[in-house]
Automatic annotation (TrEMBL):
One of its GO terms (molecular function) is protein dimerization activity. Keywords: ATP-binding, Kinase, Membrane, Nucleotide-binding, Phosphoprotein, Transferase, Transmembrane, Transmembrane helix, Two-component regulatory system. This is histidine kinase. Residues 183-248 form the Signal transduction histidine kinase subgroup 3 dimerisation and phosphoacceptor domain. The keyword Mitochondrion does not apply. InterPro entries: HATPase_C_sf, Sensor_HK_TwoCompSys, Sig_transdc_His_kin_sub3_dim/P. It is an enzyme of class 2 (transferase). It catalyses: ATP + protein L-histidine = ADP + protein N-phospho-L-histidine. The lineage of its organism: Bacteria, Bacillati, Actinomycetota, Actinomycetes, Micromonosporales.
Length: 393
């Protein structure tokens, strides 16, 4: 049982005092000048026993929160003759009606109703005919039952609303946690694409310096500058993603804004960066209106091309990479990256990778509602092709 609150102690104390005061009042009435007109008219010994039972029932009210049904069963004999315990019996009945299952409460109410004629026969009301007293007693019990059922319904409604509010709050917290996790996953996927691209460029420039130690000083300085810039950008990207993934709950509001995401208009710069690193890239751009491509579709196309160029630099160094784009509103946007399958062993150590680049591309295309194909085709080339939806309006 839950520990009593200050309000519970106050209510229980008031009910105890009320029941005890009624027991003393009923016994005092029997000692008046007209005992035959008292509330508990009857033999003096019965009134004394009734007083003791009334005090005992009043004291037992402190147990009604823990054992209401057991207390109701123990005090059942008192409903046949006791006047001093009337208030305590009403409180016990009320408690069972409010807090216990309806079948148990209905059975206890039926016992009270059926015992009313017996009680009035033992303790007749001197101011009212017998059947009128029975009807009045039944009416009082009915009012008590109605009041208890009203309190029961109100309590259940409050509990239901509280549970619904708690459930809604828990669901809201779950949605926030899921949204945060999805956002972190998205950022991690973006950073994977960016870092893989930058580090592969850095590796190519470093490899050129390694295999051409006799290059002119201007070329060496230029390559070193590109390596420095690529390393700086890679570290900056890495710092951002680590900061996001380490952010604690609620830190999203104070996080710094993300840098602008690439679109289809940034593809020429991506291709130029790869060409500057020595990658031979051929581009066929047949997009009807590149400016009209939605930002999300253009970003996905950019990442697909970026991953294709990165894979070509890793696995087919020196090969000619073909990039083709075509599409129009309503028909969708088609992206294809193709390069010859590498022959023999690469001349330099392979660039390490996580092996999840194509997995991330597939997830990105799937989320966009598109299709992805990759692998070796009938001509022996490696082909990475994707179709992305481009709404007509």
């Amino acid at each position: 049982m839950a520990r009593r609150t200050p309000r519970d102690w106050l209510v229980d104390g008031l009910l105890f005092l009320l029941s005890l005061a009624w027991a003393v009042l009923a016994f005092g009435d029997s000692l008046g000048p007209e005992p035959e007109m008292a509330l508990n008219a009857g033999p003096s010994w019965l009134n004394e026993v009734d007083l003791v039972l009334g005090v005992w029932a009043s004291t037992a009210l402190w147990l009604r929160r823990r054992w209401p049904v057991g207390l109701a069963v123990v005090t059942l004999p008192l409903i046949l003759f006791s006047v001093s315990a009337s208030v305590a019996l009403v409180v016990i009945l009320f408690t069972v009606l409010v807090h216990r299952p309806l079948p148990v409460a209905a059975a206890l109410t039926a016992v009270h109703l059926l015992s009313s004629p017996v009680f009035l026969a033992v303790r007749p009301d001197p101011a009212m005919p017998y059947w009128a007293s029975v009807a009045f007693t039944v009416l009082v019990i009915g009012v008590i039952v109605a009041w208890a059922l009203f309190v029961r319904a109100r309590r259940q409604l409050v509990l239901s609303l509280r549970e619904r509010a708690d459930r809604a709050e828990a669901e809201q917290q779950l949605r926030v946690a899921q949204a945060r996790q999805l956002e972190r996953t998205r950022i991690a996927r973006e950073m994977h694409d960016v870092l893989a691209h930058r580090i592969s460029l850095l590796s190519l420039h470093a490899g050129a310096l390694e295999f051409r130690p006799d290059a002119p000083a201007e070329e060496v300085a230029k390559a070193a500058g590109v390596i420095r810039a690529s390393a700086h950008a890679a570290l900056q990207d890495l710092r951002e993603v680590i900061g996001v993934l380490r952010a604690e709950s609620g830190a999203a509001e104070t996080a710094t804004p993300e840098r602008p995401q690439p679109t289809l208009g940034d593809l020429p710069a991506l291709v130029a960066e790869s060409r500057a690193a020595g990658v031979r890239v051929g581009v066929v751009d047949a997009v009807a209106d590149a400016a009209a491509v939605p930002a999300a579709v253009g970003r996905s196309a950019y990442r697909i091309v970026q991953e294709g160029l990165t894979n070509a630099r890793k696995h087919a160094p020196g090969a000619l990479v073909s990039v083709q784009l075509a599409g129009r509103p309503g028909d969708g946007l088609a992206v294809e990256i193709r390069n010859p399958w590498p022959v023999g062993e690469p001349p330099a150590p392979a660039i390490p990778g996580t092996g999840t680049g194509l997995v991330g591309v597939a997830e990105r295309v799937s989320l966009a509602g598109g299709r992805l194909e990759h692998g070796r085709d009938a001509t022996g080339d490696f082909r990475l092709a994707a179709w992305l939806p481009w709404p007509a309006s």
